[in-house]
Amino acid sequence: MTEPRIGIVIVTYDSADVLPGCLNSLVQGQRGVELAATVVVDNASVDNSVAVAEASRVTTVRMGRNAGYAAGFNAGVAVLDLDALDAVCVLNPDCRLRPGALAALADAVQRPGYGIAAPRLVNPDGTLQPTLRRMPAVHRAVVEAVVGGSRAGRFGELIKAPEPHATPGPAAWATGAALLMSVEALRTTGEWDESFLLYSEETDFILRAADQGWALWYEPAAVVEHLGAASGFSPALAGLIAVNKIRLFRRRRRLLATIAYALAVTAGEGVRALAGRPCSRAAFIALVRPSQRLTSLAGG
After folding, report:
1. Residue 70 lies in a domain
2. Fewest CB atoms less than 10 Å from the CB: which of 7, 107, 205, 262?
3. Does residue 280 belong to any structural domain of this protein?
4. Structure-model confidence comparison of residues 153 and 205, the more confident one
5. What's the confidence (pLDDT) of residue 148?
6. Is residue 300 assigned to a domain?
7. In which band, very low, low, confident or very high, does the pLDDT at 30 lie, cut at 50, 70 and 90?
8. How many domains does the chain fold into?
9. What rounded mean pLDDT belongs to the chain?
């Protein structure tokens, strides 16, 4: 039986400290597949990210500016020979593939009707990093506003319970730190939307793929260590996350539902801002003052 042919796209920005570990993990991660191409797309890093990539003898694309995650992924796909591949994996540079991860994901997208596969994400200590999400909905935004997103439990968008993360099966969407997409799903769905810059671009793609008949399969047998969740994110990026959540919701729901969703998200960030949380304060300001929204990334 012919092994699935996989291409990998890694999007970097000042990633020189984590990129070697990511690239080294491909040796074990590719067991059971043919790793046909690896592309590192650099979003104008000011560190040695490009030098690290070139020293590893992978294809390197220099964006010349920090164009965002979606733009970097699209640029990486553009240099791949999709006719010679079965699937493409997008990978954060702070991810580490565990042995056989790509093969397990490749098996998943060979299922009829499934064009995207998400792995089980774990922290460096091996503990679960919740990645599964429920569909965005007004009632979930209300619950998160009242009790907080991290404590919303089975009523919020983020699925934190360990049991669903131990069971393979279909999912609404999952974190985009590591995803495998069949070439057919990529071609029929189209490019990732670059207007999101960061956050929600993978959600948008997953939902658009589902519209085209390509569902997402969650495969816990594929394990990927993800370092980034432990480091958090800046207040400016928190604002971008909040704005993009509402933008994505507006694209798929009617006006009244979008207004209710936006009010719930804004109220939740406002309450947490009053509690002294800098990221929530930045998110609240971005939501109520469009002039303060992030429209370009550092180095962009």
Report:
1. yes
2. 107
3. yes
4. 205
5. 66
6. no
7. very high
8. 2
9. 92
Does residue 269 belong to any structural domain of this protein? yes
Do 250 and 224 fall into the same domain? Answer: no
Tell me, yes or no, whether 209 and 81 share the same domain. yes
Which of 204, 231, 258 lies at the terminal end of a domain, its last residue? 231
Give the model confidence (pLDDT) of 6-19 as tens digits. Answer: 999 999 999 999 99
> Is 237 a residue whose pLDDT tops 90?
no
pTM, two decimals, is 0.92
Report the CATH number that the domain containing residue 46 is assigned in CATH. Answer: 3.90.550.10
Structural domain range at position 256: 235-292
Mean pLDDT, to the nearest integer, of 189-208? 92
Q: What tokens does 134 get? A: 């429920």
92 with 130, same domain?
yes
